[in-house]
Amino acid sequence: MRGFVRELTAALSEAGVDNARLEAECIMESAGISRLTLLTEPNMPVESEISDAAREMVLRRTRGEPLQYILGEWEFYGYPFKVGEGVLIPRQDTELLTEIAEGYLKKNGGGLIADLCAGSGCVGISLARRCDCKVKCYELSEAAFGYLERNIELNEVSGTVEAVRADVLTFTTLESFDAVVANPPYLTKDDMKQLQREVAYEPQSALYGGSDGLNFYREILPRWTGCLKSGGLFAVEIGIGQEKDVVQIFAESGMKAECAKDACGIYRVVYGIKR
Ligand code: GLN
Description:
Helices cover 41% and strands 20% of the residues. By secondary structure, it is of the alpha/beta class. The radius of gyration is 20 Å and the shape is elongated.
């Protein structure tokens, strides 16, 4: 087994994968051999079914497919999310948006939340698991919507989270929310030309925010501020260097916004309270 893991690690490393050993272990785990078994029984032979499955996954990975799609599941905020082609992979960056919303909801007693461009549902579902709230997750893409529904089931939150198939740029509702959160597509035209190999596998519709990356903020802010209760939170994730423009867009919707930095010191979230 030790030799086999070494073989996988070498193949990944040769293909330019950074954390080759870690990814080899994740792939072994997904093929059916836990990390603990790797540690405690390094000399156990690997059954051919398992080695075939692991080699096939490594081959996909060496061709550039994201590890998360190959494993089919990824963790966000400590919770599991099914992922695959057609849905944006939950990123650690987005935990900041979730944290800010969680802090607000805990302080203000929960309520009804709208998660726009929900994708896998990672933000809305995590909030439903952490806070006393009901969440509507809005998603347009058919493929992503399938994952959203599966993740609601997987996280056992069907009592509090509802998936709504809708285009948040045109959708209207008479409902009134206590918080609106969104991680919309925000990459610029230039960003799209230089996507990392793995990111190019992800749906363009979840990444591209128009030539300057700001299209969704311009549409979402005025539209959804109208559905926010007075005193409610509006929080969005942003791309690198977009904070000034997005704060201005909040101001045009009558909100004085603040910016929060992620662990790398990059402004990652803009948020404001409706007066
Ligand atoms: N954070 C993603 C990236 O940099 C983009 C996701 C998004 O546009 N919301 O690849």
